[in-house]
Amino acid sequence: MKYQENQKDISLKIKKARRLFILSCEIVVLNFLSILPVTAATEEPVLSVVYGQENANQWKGISDRLQTIGVKYCVISLNDVKSGADWGDRRVLFLPNVETLTPTQAIALEEWMSKGGRLIASGPVGSLSSPGVRQLLRSLLGGYWGFSLSDTEQIQAAKTKIPEWTNQTGLFGKVRGGVVIPNDMSAESPAVWNSKDNPAAVVTTERSTFLGWRWGTDTASAAELDNAWLKTTINHYLTALAPSNRTKKIAGGSQSCSTTVAAAPSVQGGRGAEGQGGRGAEGLGGSSSPSFIPPKTATAPIPRSLPMVKPPSSQEAIDQLEQAVRLDVAPNSNEPIDRNQAIALQQELENLIGRVESAHLAVLADAANVGETISEGEGKQFSRHLNTPQSVKEQPIQLASTKLGALAISKDQALAQARLIAKNLPQLIAQKNYALARQQWLLAKTTLWQQFPVDRKLAQPEIRAVWLDRGTIVRAGSKAGLAQIFDRLAQAGINTVFFETVNAGYPIYPSQVAKEQNPLIRGWNPLEEAVKLAHERDMELHAWVWTFAAGNQRHNEILNLNPNYPGPVLAAHPDWANYDNLGNMIPVGQSKPFFDPANPEVRQYLLKLYEEIVTKYKVDGLQLDYIRYPFQDPSAGRTYGYGKAARAQFQKLTGVDPVNISPSQADLWQKWTKFRTEQVDSFVAQVSQQLRQKQPNLILSVAVFPLPEQERIQKIQQNWETWARQGDVDLIVPMTYALDTSRFQRLAQPWIASKQLGATLLVPGIRLLSLPTIGAFDQLQLVRDLPVSGYALFAAENFSNDLQKIFSSTQGRIQSTTSEPIPLRQPFQTAAIRYTALQREWKFVFQNDQRQRPSQKISDFNNQAEVLRSALNQLAASPSASKLLVAKASLTRFQSQFRVLMSQEIKSNSYQVKVWENRLVTIERLLRYGERRVQLRPL
């Protein structure tokens, strides 16, 4: 019996071994035949592939490769991802060439991966997302896209020990991609670039693999190499699991599975603005891509390379600027708070209290003036010494807390709580209770944000501008679609539109000057229609043009063109190109080729193009964007400006070819920097002079970087203070983009306070991307409390429905027989109306003040205020040099006495008194601007 039992045991073991051997052979054969074993074992898809706006034009190449591999997959529309479940229940997710994720999508991805999901990504994934999203993606991917390589390079196996699953043939070859920088101790780099220092081409972790090229595009890599990496990576993540778990779904993931793009929900909205940290707009239209015509090539200069060339930061320049002034408050961090941070936290909280009260005062004063009803006690909310006047009836003002569905709390309670927290912050920090201090600060900020009045008009006449980006224009598709956009903006009170007219070398209209219209526009003329639509709605239409940026690699991807295509103008005129010190038309780590501003033919071409726009289409204004050189860092060996014309002219001036000098040669380098800066300065002056001869009423504006002047001149040769002082431009729009109000204020304040701008107006730019609705409103309230005449929003594609509703209530148009003046056109009328609003606020405060004031003091104040009101009204009604002189003198006299007249208010609410002073400064600037624009003659 024992012998028979032993024989049975041996037979069973032999059978098991035979089955294991057969299974192993099957797996080997399936791998050899490029069939995924899990796919063969089940009919269920094991892979989800993300389809979005940024890879739509690459989708044919992506889907062809997927079909060749033979893996079953589901298509996920990025636009539909709002939660972790939306990433699906398949075990592996592939993100091919998706550069933009929203914070919601990134958090959802983290949740999905925490349940066992495995991620494969390719290209500069998330590189155009907000800073917080990029940081989260770094942790999920184990690395991040550092910078693009300028040439095709060989991918090779790393010399260090690599994961066994990547030790296969077919994974290495020639690829055009970028450096992936590991960001995690557990990350491995199985494949590297065959270039100096062998930077990583692939980074992999236990739960993700990051491919450093745009998978699925023939211009980046061969299909065979793409297929080898994807199927090897999928096999790795599936076979690394226990057999019983290989077909297990992600818990809570959606089971729905679209197998084609047509079946998947359509991509809408999306991201049209190129990076949003840079400028121009990039979006997708429904038009087909043009066939690629190889561009003519110019002989690039071969300058002497400067030593120690360092790759640029992967961040957008505008994001780097924001990082430099950020005020981060992590809720649970117990990191020490130093004295300067403590002061900043306390000051920002006190400023936010002031902004909330200032907004309410504007609403209450306006309501009392027109006889609207407000709630009992609202008059007390401005400060402790105010009461509601008897003439005001009861009706609650709707706050952001109720409007946006947040937890309601009374304004009295919120302000009292915030004041107490601000008062106690120094004590908590002194006790080293840093986490509690941060938590209390965030609580106060959130609660105060809920107290803004969002259902009453509080805005006075101001410049309310928005950049209408090309992506949004393309998606509009027709005059009818564009009309809907203009209707929405007009209802929200927007009065000025910067309409993207020239982008990446393409005009958005059929031009007699430029080589070709933007290929994403078919069968209509958006500029012609936009001018009509704007004027029908009493809006200004300013043509927004890329000046010296001649092309865009991102735009090439959308059109499925060669990444190196320099744009239609440089393709036709290669001698017009500019170069860096290494001979590259596109600087390392950047994406745009530039014209040489020193080239007379370039200047004449641009002037002729702008003249066509201004004369043929009767636009109200022209905005110059990219009116600079690309970003450089001389200390790191990255410089630019070595175009053929520039080199010849500089050598004629100095006897030295600029490619042979370096920053260490201080005198020559300063001359070279000055030479390039003057090319930009003189072009702005030329544009101003020539176009104003054609259209004297043209408004000329510039979109500029808010870097300190000397740093800006060294890095991008942009000296916009000179343009303003000389009167070449009417409006400066610094791109003061920030994700919270304190950063925004630190970026904008130096330029708003600047006395170097002559009679030129300045309005700060606000970037809406990733900015919460009430956060945007807070930044607008700050603008209204500072001495500026308005704002500009970047961009139309991020103008949400929630923001539109709030704008419609707080600054939207009121049905009346007279339209509200726009400061750029009617500066004197704007000044008069804004001053009247100030008087209403003072009257409201004095009427509700429980303390006694000397009657003589009130009489003196009212008399001086009335003298100024009369002077401003007379100037607005019939402008003349003599009336302007009287108005300016009255304003100066009133300003000199204002703090004395407001001595009691300074003690109780110094913030509001400063706001009133700022608004008087705004009126002063409007008069100065009006004097230059109107060119008054004595009467």
Report on the structure:
A hairpin with a 3-residue loop joins β10 (200-204) and β11 (208-211). The longest helix has 32 residues, at 339-370. By secondary structure, the protein is of the alpha/beta class. Strands 12, 13, 14, 15, 16, 17, 18, 19, 20 and 21 form a ten-stranded mixed beta sheet that branches. The chain has a nine-stranded mixed beta sheet with strand order 2-1-3-4-11-10-9-6-7, with helices on one face. The protein is 44% helix and 11% strand. Mean pLDDT is 84; it is low at 1-5, 13-18, 20-42, 263-314, 379-395 and 402-407.
Characterize this entry briefly:
By secondary structure, the protein is of the alpha/beta class. 44% of the residues lie in helices and 11% in strands. Residues 1-5, 13-18, 20-42, 263-314, 379-395 and 402-407 have low confidence and may be disordered.
Write the layout of secondary structure elements.
Blueprint: H1 2-32, H2 37-41, E1 47-51, H3 59-69, E2 73-77, E3 92-96, H4 103-114, E4 118-122, H5 131-141, E5 143-148, E6 153-157, E7 174-175, E8 178-182, E9 188-193, E10 200-204, E11 208-211, H6 223-239, H7 317-324, H8 339-370, H9 400-403, H10 411-430, H11 434-449, E12 463-468, H12 470-476, H13 479-491, E13 496-503, E14 506-507, H14 526-536, E15 540-546, H15 553-558, H16 568-572, H17 600-617, E16 621-625, H18 644-654, H19 666-694, E17 699-704, H20 709-716, H21 720-725, E18 731-734, H22 741-752, E19 761-762, E20 765-767, H23 773-785, E21 790-794, H24 801-810, H25 827-847, H26 855-877, H27 881-901, H28 903-908, H29 910-934
Parallel strand pairs: 1-2, 1-3, 3-4, 4-11, 12-13, 12-21, 13-15, 15-16, 16-17, 17-18, 18-19, 20-21
Antiparallel strand pairs: 5-8, 6-7, 6-9, 9-10, 10-11, 13-14
Helix pairs in contact: 3-6, 4-5, 8-10, 8-11, 8-23, 8-25, 10-11, 13-14, 17-19, 25-26, 25-29, 26-27, 27-29
